[in-house]
Design a protein that fits this description.
This protein is an alpha+beta fold and 444 residues long. Among the domains are: 50 residues, no CATH class; 81 residues, DNA Binding (I), subunit A (Orthogonal Bundle), CATH 1.10.30; 62 residues, SH3 type barrels. 29% of the residues lie in helices and 29% in strands. It contains twelve helices and 23 strands. The strands form six sheets. Strands 5, 6, 7, 8, 11, 12, 13 and 23 form an eight-stranded mixed β-sheet that branches. A five-stranded antiparallel β-sheet has the order 21-20-19-18-22, with no helix packed on it. A four-stranded mixed β-sheet has the order 2-1-4-3, with helices on both faces. Strand 20 and strand 21 form a beta hairpin. Helix 3 packs across helix 10.
């Protein structure tokens, strides 16, 4: 993974290799500016040559993929076509906490209703909340806000000159071919990729009839077209070659007459909405407006093109590698790089009482946020000389007023570590970090 570099005045320069950063730190020519993502600041250098970097995003309902790439553009002498080769410098996956926000708001609404009925009678009211055009729920607004925050943060740490995001944009067909019209314009060159990707997410990337995974899957009609079935996505599923040939033109009820439970599951799942896809679709335009407000050129590309690029360059499917394949990608450099996992943890809560599942208090939190110079969320290093937790532990700390802390490490939670053994690495910023190994093989 490349190391981000700042000059003496705190302005971003070109990232360097880990070896180069280690030499600069050992020789005293740089200091550590930030641990996650690892950034150094030069002590004497002000200027330096920078190359254009592009920050790519693959927004998802739970995880957003981030890829900071250096693009090398070459022009074909014969055709005059511009080819874009991407060299990834930083790969990261941002895990949102939209589900926890939704659950917290649901619980707060339940408490509010209870107080209203308990304290005094209030007449029923409805339609007393006005929502402006383009309103998003707090859990959805959080997805846009976290992506915006990390775009702003990476722009401060690296010379980002362009942005790319995955979004549906059919006008790209007309830009490539001004004479395109009719059905050809509506379908586009990547017809089938969007529907297939939707079905893969909906059916869990396995055969709907036998449950087999990691095999080539075929798009199959639940109700055969020979018996009046349509091409609607609610009538489409995925099946392996053996099940598809065995089913043939039979109705699904006849084919699974011996397995009524599996038949019922398929019929229910066929008409069930894809909640995650709805969340991504509702935040797509809001995120695009946020990125466009930065003043940088924004490239919007469809999910079908992302999948096409991934298959073309034989890259496995992960969120960060999907971000790497967003937009025009004619060639890819070394994508086998470690991944920085970022988890949105929040900055704490105003709630001072812990409740059990029945709503009764089971504990109280102190009003003081910092104890012994530490607060929950700080990244610390604990060197324990003896005892059951002997060793070195690095991770996110959870403080207590008595001075016995817990540390969340990649291997698990280490409990009851004295504050005297802890040293601060990075102040809490609302996120938890850990490094994941690079993906080496392509997923089936």
């Amino acid at each position: 993974m490349a190391v981000l570099v700042l000059n003496k005045q705190g302005k971003p320069l070109m990232p360097c290799s880990e070896k180069r950063a280690r030499l600069l730190l050992e020789r005293g020519r740089a200091v550590v500016h930030r641990q996650m993502p690892f950034t150094i600041r030069l002590k004497h250098r002000i200027d330096g040559a920078v190359q254009p970097l592009r920050l790519k995003l693959d927004p998802g309902s739970r995880i957003t993929g981030l890829a900071l790439v250096r693009e090398v553009e070459t022009v074909d002498v014969e055709t005059g076509e511009v080819r874009r080769e991407a060299h990834p410098l930083l790969l990261a996956e941002l895990q949102q906490r939209g589900a926890s926000i939704r659950d917290a708001l649901t619980q707060r609404a339940a408490f509010r209703r209870r107080r209203r009925s308990q304290l005094r009678y209030r007449a029923a009211r409805f339609l007393n909340r006005t929502r402006p055009k383009g309103w998003l729920a707090p859990s959805l607004r959080h997805r846009v806000a976290t992506a915006q925050a990390w775009v702003t943060r990476l722009r401060r740490l690296a010379p980002v000159t362009a942005l790319s995001m995955e979004s549906v944009r059919f006008d790209m067909q007309q830009l490539l071919n001004p004479e395109i019209s009719g059905v050809e314009y509506q379908q586009g060159a990547l017809l089938g990729y969007e529907v297939r990707e939707y079905l893969l997410e909906k059916w869990g990337r396995q055969c709907a009839y036998c449950g087999t995974g990691n095999v080539p899957l075929q798009v199959e009609h639940i109700q055969p077209k020979a018996k009046g079935g349509s091409n609607r996505v609610s009538n489409l599923t995925l099946a392996c070659r053996q099940c598809n040939e065995k089913k043939g033109k039979r109705d699904v009820r006849d084919f699974l007459a011996h397995a009524p439970q599996r038949l019922a599951r398929i019929l229910v799942q066929a008409t069930a909405p894809l909640r995650d896809a709805a969340a991504v679709n509702s935040t797509r335009r809001a995120l695009y407006r946020v990125l466009a407000a930065t003043g940088l050129p924004v490239e919007a590309s469809s999910g079908g093109r992302t999948k096409y690029n991934r298959h073309l360059h034989h890259i496995p499917k992960t969120h960060c590698l999907d971000a790497l394949c967003v937009g025009q990608v004619d060639a890819v450099g070394r994508w086998q790089r470690p991944v920085l996992a970022i988890k949105a943890c929040g900055r704490g809560s105003y709630q001072r009482t812990l409740l059990d599942k029945y709503g009764f208090p089971r504990g109280y939190l102190t009003r003081q946020k910092r104890h012994f110079g530490f607060q929950t969320g700080d990244r610390v290093r604990a060197i324990v000389p003896s005892g059951k937790n002997v060793g070195t532990h690095v991770g996110r700390v959870a403080v207590r007023s008595r001075g016995s802390f817990n540390i969340q490490t990649p291997a698990g939670v280490v409990q009851d570590i004295s504050h005297r053994h802890c040293s601060l690495i990075q102040r809490a910023d609302g996120y938890g970090y850990c490094h994941q190994p690079a993906v080496r093989e392509r997923n089936a």
